[in-house]
Each structure stands twice: as C-alpha cells, then as structure tokens.
C-alpha cells in the first residue's frame, strides 16, 4: 500500500514538472476592488433607510382601518377574521344576505359529503355572523327587534348544532340542522 501512495505522488510530481512554461499562463494580479463609500456616507444611507422604513410604517399605522381594508381587500380568511374593521349596519345586512346565499349553495357539498369544506365554511361564517347580527339590529325599528332577536338566536343555535353534527359526521342530523339553518337565515333576511 505504501508503494502505491509513493508511486502516485511520484506521478503527480512528474506531471507537474512536465508542464512547460509555455503552456502555463501567468497569474496576473488584478487590482482589489473596494467600495467607494466612506464610513460616514454608509452611515448616512443607513439613517435614510431606517427613517424611510419607520415613516412608511407609521403612515400605515395612522391610516384608518376601513381604508386599509379597502386597499388590501377582504376576500381571504385571514383578512376577514383578523383585519376586518367593524362594518356599518348596511354592510352587515349585505354580508348576512351573502351568507344566506352561500348557505343555500352549501347543499351540493353536503350531498357529496365533503365534511371538511362544510365545517370550514360554517366556522368561517359563524366567526363574524354574531357581530353582523348585532350591527344589523340597529337598522330595524323597535317593534320588529324582539322577533329579530328570536330568529337570530335560532339561527346561531341551529348553526352550532349543524357544526356539531357535521363534525361527527351524522348524515341525517346534518341535513336536518342544515334545513333548520336555512329556514332561520331566510327568516332573518326577510326581517331585514
């Protein structure tokens, strides 16, 4: 084993010495490239960058929430859940009507037993439906508020039961509470 190592080093030495000076390229040293910024200039640029960043952040923080939501849009779950500003009563009524349309279109997912999507949709709508129902109540006259509160409570109860039965998944009970939820939300929309 030692002879093979010795032969290898001898071959490498031979090969290295066999290279002629004509085939070797001369190593030219290139001048070192240095930054043209001085320390003071770099510090000034850092200050400008930090000031710009803080000024932009402060400007966004001082911007009213409603306009911020309009700039970002409110279609995604995270924006609706965490960054959605308090809606006006008219907007709350519109969102309740959209929720009613969405619940009516949920039938197809129930027929296909797509439980995961049904659970996600119901929980998403439950997250802000309570706030919308409270906001929308201010648009009603005093004479209709008692009936509205009863229908809204029935809607919230039936949606929570629907969520419970879809989670287990109990098919008959899911359909039963789905129909009760549709009836309750249609009653709420009719009162609005």
Distance between the termini: 95 Å
Q: CATH-wise, what's the superfamily of the domain at 86-191?
A: Oxygen-evolving enhancer protein 3 (PsbQ), four-helix up-down bundle
Number of strands: 0
Order of helices and strands: HHHHHHHHH
SS element count, helices: 9
**Global morphology:** elongated
Category from helices, strands and their pairing: mainly alpha
Low-pLDDT segments: 67-74
The CATH topology of the domain at 86-191: Four Helix Bundle (Hemerythrin (Met), subunit A)
GO molecular function, one term: calcium ion binding
GO biological process, one term: photosynthetic electron transport chain
Main location: plastid
Subcellular location: Plastid, Chloroplast thylakoid membrane
Helices and strands in order, then pairings?
Layout (H helix, E strand, L loop, with lengths): L1 H17 L20 H24 L2 H8 L4 H6 L6 H16 L2 H5 L3 H23 L4 H26 L3 H21 L1
Helix pairs in contact: 5-7, 5-9, 7-8, 8-9
Overview of the molecule:
This protein has 192 residues and is mostly helical. The N and C termini lie far apart (95 Å). About 4% of the residues have low confidence. The chain has nine helices and no strands. Helix 7 runs antiparallel to helix 8 and helix 8 packs antiparallel against helix 9. Keywords: Chloroplast, Membrane, Plastid, Thylakoid, Transit peptide. Belongs to the PsbQ family. Its main location: plastid. Pfam families: PsbQ.
Supply the key terms.
single chain, 192 residues, mainly alpha, Four Helix Bundle (Hemerythrin (Met), subunit A)
How would you summarize this macromolecular structure in one to three sentences?
Pfam families: PsbQ (PF05757). This protein is an all-alpha fold and 192 residues long.
């Amino acid at each position: 084993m030692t002879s093979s190592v010795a032969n290898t080093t001898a071959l490498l030495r031979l090969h290295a010495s066999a290279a002629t000076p004509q085939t070797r390229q001369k190593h030219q040293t290139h001048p070192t490239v240095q930054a043209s910024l001085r320390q003071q200039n770099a510090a000034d640029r850092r200050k400008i960058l930090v000031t710009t960043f803080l000024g932009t952040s402060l400007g966004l923080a001082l911007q009213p929430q409603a306009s911020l939501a309009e700039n970002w849009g409110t279609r995604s779950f995270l924006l609706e859940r965490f960054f959605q500003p308090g809606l006006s009563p008219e907007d709350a009524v519109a969102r309740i009507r959209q929720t009613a349309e969405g619940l009516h279109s949920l039938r197809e997912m129930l027929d296909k037993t797509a439980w995961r999507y049904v659970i996600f949709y119901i929980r998403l709508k439950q997250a802000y439906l309570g706030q919308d129902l409270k906001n929308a109540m201010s648009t009603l006259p005093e004479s209709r508020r008692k009936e509205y509160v009863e229908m809204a409570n029935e809607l919230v109860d039936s949606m929570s039961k629907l969520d419970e039965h879809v989670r287990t998944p109990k098919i008959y009970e899911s359909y039963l509470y789905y129909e009760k939820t549709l009836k309750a939300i249609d009653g709420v929309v009719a009162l609005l």
